[in-house]
Task: structure prediction
Amino acid sequence: MSGIQETEKQLAGLTRAEKEQLLQWLLRDLGAAVPGIESTTGVMGGVACIRETRIPVWLLEQARQLGVSEAELLRNYPALSAQDLANAWEYARSHPDEIEAQIEANERNDD
Result:
């Protein structure tokens, strides 16, 4: 039996709710393939960061929402390139709920 056939058999035994959870996970996993963005367990709590840095996407998106320009971000984070910011904006667009939850969690921690 091939891996796909085995997976189909296992999927048939799942409840509708379990299938929905699996689909959401698959979509997140597939959508996470934004070049230059990495999520590494044990690094910055596993949140999406700019490749080879500890600069989280949510931090950049929050700064942008607060009116910080790309030029200012590039000055403040010299390790970043314009392409890194473009990748971050794409990730934030693709994962709005995740990014907003991380921004909100950070704001709660600041209180």
